[in-house]
């Protein structure tokens, strides 16, 4: 009986105990890591340690472990998934392609690392995310011009790339000095997918082919069209990282010194650690996650929100936007937030001014068109979660008594009428009583 | 223990080649635990060597059926060849990173020992000072009579390195307790810990009597746990045998031998040696020449990964070898293979693995059976142009110098063609200062290319041959690079019909070019160049692409083929119009030539060609959609401001006022007219009643007019109509009265 009592008192505490993914706390917390081989835990420990030190709870499992599952009793057990199992043909447990897609569709994050012998399963997951790996299973990205100089790797498949996407939110504000080492397969972005972005691309001289066999046909992937690392931000703000190389996450590449061919500078450490740490911060929503709140609008000089505006009213609009820093919501500072006053198409589109403390505001005149309008904030920026706010508000025309009276141009009409009336009055008297 | 329980850990060495196939059958009907066996493809562990594509597929055929068939099939595209580097400074810096104490200690005594032992082996002097806290922990553990055997064992191990001040009585007490445990020990771990601890006490304090009087008996009881295949059971009531346990048992037996007060029965030693040989029969291997031990029966609880299993066997084997005389019949290449396995891991990322690797290598380094020698090349990419020397180093696994020996380059052949060797039997010179074997100049027969060099170590001293394991021939992939000469580069536009040259331009592919050509669909474009190696041979690069890029960013790539001596590509535009999507206009020409062994690989813009292609027919294919620049998809939109309707044009106020005046004029004219005709009010009724009605009638009219004014100013229609209704009725009444009065008056006048 007492046990039951304790149980019942604990039930309301449960939501407090679970520190999971929520709109208020968007960072992923519990991460399932699927490996081909548990030795990866040791050989890629720097990457995993950096995640753990940032508070992530990593759960390492073999990809073919029959006990693994992403959800139980309708609840997801994890907030994010790391697939470091390029050769896995089939996952164990209840995980399959559809389960992973559902996982992402419900707003969870995913990191996929493929490798030269990537299985069809991993390729399919990547294809569903909008990138296509080179179909030739033996193909590697080769670059005879911007390769990493090495005494022992002579086949130029170890690439030193520094062609990053230019975005502070994705790669952090600190510049990545050293090139990133990459050894693996390349992929191309599906041109019809607007959500996928190239984060690290190959140089114009790169191509994807089997280094051991002679080329007779042009390779399917060449030049800067080859993406080495790509990211996807789905419409539900789930984030995916796709890399064609598993070794770029490894301790060996993290610690390796790097010198790009043709460049005199030799960096003591490759840029991999900084690049992937920053990128993982982005993927796990420690950066670039926005929220908007306190949308307010009112007539100029008033404080309350009206139920309807009249054409030509002056109004003030304000919204607060915050960015998640991994631990707290910080004011978001930008100068390109815009509000639209929208009915079928925007009638007014205006940049919002900010007080740098998260508040954005502007004032404008309601257009002289009546109908049902919306205040719309459609904020889509590279690397940030998209904000889409809309608030409906009707706009009415002037009432009959709100128009202008006694227009000077009408004085002749007034004069005519009144003179007529005066004349009539005099005429009645004169007509009746004059002799 | 959990940390070591890495499931199915195995390391590959970047290269898997020949199909690796093995099946294992566990004892039937014993374990119902789930069987999981993973395969690995782990390319990153090898410190630095070329990485060759490999594929490894696991088929799991059966599970939970009592017998397991595990099929590992490794398919690879290329042949095995890899080099292993001995332990170097990168291990030392990694060790300091991995073993960093928190609050002045490493946590448990076991971890402390692992850290200290690793630092000791690697010769790291600047290790963190943790002796105070650890020594206290050591004396506490040894002083307490309730501390577990395992803790005592590790405390003694820590003490063997730190040399803490532990008094003789404590040692006496511990030794007594250990002997008591030993007397009624039944499980292997009890034996292992107690004997191990006694050996450590013997080394640390010679005053304590640790010798075993019944060494034979102890030996037999440990031996009783062994299985016929050389593996061991943990205890007599646990039927599962394990390779990991075999290592522990060997170490315990070695301890027994060293603790024996009298000579151990030689027949026991001989059977044990046979057991070791059997154990080594079960060794598994990768195709790059590395050997390892793995548990055959995979039990989730007890399972140790290949690294810890191999490490345990190596420790036990080397310990046993060091205490017995006579040879143990284990081939040297298996020992070398074990060393390669440990070196192949590279730098492990966790401390347990790191310790196992370093400790096992240290055991192998000083083992009595055969000491592995590792042949490594500081560089396998050699430049022919820079005249790089071929250097080979031979070291022991921990990087110390090898005995006098000669390295022979037995053979060198172009990879892929095994039969045509370019070098046969060359002896490398030795530079004693740098301890490097080198070849001054590569022989003339070696051109740029991708080679396999086969080395052999020949020991000078014939006695060394029994001490060291050299592993026969070692195959190493070597890239010989060089500057490639490019000449005879020219680009030309040809007439299709006659093949006559229309325009021809020479190209300097080493510098900038900006040719501008023009062609139509009836012509051809020819690009040709010649490549020669530093030795003057024709060079065929892996990458020779010609890229045509249209203004609209549509790209076409062609592989430049070689015809005999020179590279040539002829683009017949007539056949390519469809491929070019009938897009006329400027095409930029880019030539990329590159190869792994070509030091001057280039990507060069050659110029452009103005193409005049026919109009596209209706059904012509459309150019593919191009990737959109992501920045164009984002970014702020242009501001939109609503344009309000402009107010209607109005006349100026003066004009309105003038017209107001004009509209008032008729009234003024009317009034003047009235005055002119002499109006009067003589007809106004004189009697009181009609006069009142007349007044009321006119007041009524005035009221109606006033109502109109009010309607104009403020009243709405409803009030106005209502009021008008009343006023109208009133007017009707008074109007009727006054008008009828007036009418009767005028009728009277007429009649009068």
TrEMBL record, chain A:
Q: Where in the cell is it found?
A: Endoplasmic reticulum membrane; Membrane
Signal recorded as keyword: yes
From which residue to which does the signal peptide run?
Answer: 1-20
Report the transmembrane regions from the record: 411-433
Q: Which Pfam families match?
A: OST48_MD (PF23358), OST48_N (PF03345)
Query: Do you know which InterPro entries this protein is assigned to?
Result: DDOST_48_kDa_subunit, OST48_MD, OST48_N
A single GO BP annotation from the record?
protein N-linked glycosylation via asparagine
Primary subcellular site in the record, as a coarse category:
endoplasmic reticulum
Q: Which residues form the OST48 N-terminal domain?
A: 30-283
Subunit structure and binding partners? Component of the oligosaccharyltransferase (OST) complex.
Instruction: Describe the task this protein carries out.
Output: Subunit of the oligosaccharyl transferase (OST) complex that catalyzes the initial transfer of a defined glycan (Glc(3)Man(9)GlcNAc(2) in eukaryotes) from the lipid carrier dolichol-pyrophosphate to an asparagine residue within an Asn-X-Ser/Thr consensus motif in nascent polypeptide chains, the first step in protein N-glycosylation. N-glycosylation occurs cotranslationally and the complex associates with the Sec61 complex at the channel-forming translocon complex that mediates protein translocation across the endoplasmic reticulum (ER).
Protein name, UniProt field: Dolichyl-diphosphooligosaccharide--protein glycosyltransferase 48 kDa subunit
Q: Which organism is it from?
A: Castanea mollissima
UniProtKB/TrEMBL annotation, chain B:
Relate the assembly described in the record.
Component of the oligosaccharyltransferase (OST) complex.
Endoplasmic reticulum among keywords: yes
Q: What membrane topology does this protein have? A: Multi-pass membrane protein
Domain Ribophorin II third: start-end pairs = 488-611
Q: Where is the Ribophorin II N-terminal domain?
A: 87-365
- Signal peptide start and end residues: none
Print the keywords alphabetically. Answer: Endoplasmic reticulum, Membrane, Signal, Transmembrane, Transmembrane helix
Q: What are the residue boundaries of the Ribophorin II second domain, all occurrences included?
A: 373-480
- Which residues are listed as membrane-spanning? 65-84, 655-679, 691-711, 717-739
Lineage, top ranks: Eukaryota, Viridiplantae, Streptophyta, Embryophyta, Tracheophyta
Question: Which PANTHER family does the entry mention?
Answer: DOLICHYL-DIPHOSPHOOLIGOSACCHARIDE--PROTEIN GLYCOSYLTRANSFERASE SUBUNIT 2, RIBOPHORIN II
| GO CC field | oligosaccharyltransferase complex
Q: What is its main location?
A: endoplasmic reticulum
The pathway entry for this protein reads as: Protein modification; protein glycosylation
Name it.
Dolichyl-diphosphooligosaccharide--protein glycosyltransferase subunit 2
Homology family: Belongs to the SWP1 family.
Q: Could you tell me which residue ranges the Ribophorin II C-terminal domain spans?
A: 644-744
- Tell me one GO biological process term: protein N-linked glycosylation
- Known role: Subunit of the oligosaccharyl transferase (OST) complex that catalyzes the initial transfer of a defined glycan (Glc(3)Man(9)GlcNAc(2) in eukaryotes) from the lipid carrier dolichol-pyrophosphate to an asparagine residue within an Asn-X-Ser/Thr consensus motif in nascent polypeptide chains, the first step in protein N-glycosylation. N-glycosylation occurs cotranslationally and the complex associates with the Sec61 complex at the channel-forming translocon complex that mediates protein translocation across the endoplasmic reticulum (ER). All subunits are required for a maximal enzyme activity.
